[in-house]
Amino acid sequence: MYKFTHVSAKTVAEASTALAKGNTQVFAGGTDLMPYLKGMFTLNPPSVIVDLKTIPNLSYIKEEGGMLKIGALTTLTAIANSSVVKGSYTVLAQAAKAVAAPELRNMGTIGGNICQKPRCVYYRNEFNSFSCLRKNPSGLCFALAGENTGHSIFGPTGGCLAVCPSDTAPALVALNASIVTNKKTWKAADFFGIGATAFKGEQINQIDADEVVTEIQVPTPAAGTKSAYLKFAFRKAIDFPLVSAAVVVTSAGGNVSAASIVLGGVHNSPKVATAAQDSIKGKAIDATTAEAAGAAAVTSATALGKNKYKIQIAKVMIKRALLATK
Predict the structure, then answer these.
(1) Which residues contact 236 (CB under 8 A, 6 or more apart)?
(2) How is residue 163 annotated by DSSP?
(3) 61-114+170-219 to CATH, choices 1.10.3430.10, 3.55.40.20, 3.30.465.10, 3.40.190.10
(4) Which end of the chain is more exposed for a tag (fewer CB within 10 A), N or C?
């Protein structure tokens, strides 16, 4: 395990100052960081760990000012069990509950879930056995011709085929959420770099090294809105999503007036299924329209050597998630 100095930040400003010194990592719940440190995955290990748990008042769930507000240190268990989240923001509660196992959800935070490291067998190989593109600008994406069972079906970003492993990320994008940091307020789509042509180092988002997530903000859904999150993994517990679908649908008079459909586990960032969204607007959700939406979502998908199965599963996940909102 790498050696490091531990800093217990008392304020967000103090944490940001420590992080600005470089070669640092944030510690929140630690469920992703500790395996990263123990596995010695990287060429550039952190010399300083900045602990956010010592900062007060960053764990809460409340509705205020026409939106849901969640503190960055709020545990995934608290979000999954919240009657407020389960009621109007169902997709987020279901996504939080889908993360790992109860013990990890009890420790893991919403801020950590959207700031975790990429999930790839080459990136995560112990002792940095593969100096991949994520860790070394002159490296390779070994998944292109190697083991790519869990990798992108929508091509690489900046040459990298690793997927965004966060369960809550697609839900936040589908809900049109905002991510508040000490520097700015990001739209969730921009935070995760949707549409970006390059990734940002060893991370799944676009924030700076000294930027600290403080709050998640989700606008209150319109009347007639229902949502759902479904996930496929080889194991029902612990595993990260190989494919997931987050859907938010607003209906009026029995027909869809607005829809947001986002796939997870299939690209570097959550994949907004624009064609699927368009295909159901003005229509009633039934088996036929839901199946057509699933097909529309993967028209631009391209399988690698071992991940063709993801295309079919993405279709099914979208169909089932949409039917769950009827």
Answers:
(1) none
(2) B
(3) 3.30.465.10
(4) N
How far apart (Å, rounded) are the C-alpha atoms in residues 195 and 3?
Answer: 37
Contact yes or no for 127/88 (Cβ under 8 A): no
84's tokens: 């407020």
At 18-73, the pLDDT tens digits run: 999 989 999 999 999 999 999 999 888 999 999 999 999 999 999 999 999 999 99
pTM of the predicted model over 0.90: yes
Q: Please list the residues that pair with 227 across neighbouring strands.
A: 248
- Per CATH, the number for 225-323 is 3.30.390.50
300: helix, strand or coil: coil
pLDDT digits (tens, 9 = 90+) for 289-313: 999 999 999 999 999 999 999 999 9
Residues of the chain with CATH 3.30.390.50: 225-323
Structure tokens at 116: 């975790």
User: What six digits make up the tokens of 143?
Assistant: 């998944």
CA distance 98 to 116: 16
Residue 125: partners with Cβ closer than 8 Å, 6 or more residues away: 39, 41
- Contact between 54 and 8 under an 8 Å Cβ cutoff? The reply is yes
As annotated, the residues of the chain forming the CATH 3.30.465.10 domain(s) are 61-114+170-219
Type and span of the H or E element at 12:
helix 12-19
Distance CA 17, CA 94 (A): 35
**How many CB atoms sit inside 10 A of residue 224's CB?**
13
Distances (CA, A) of 44 to 48, 226, 268, 300, 317: 12, 44, 21, 36, 38
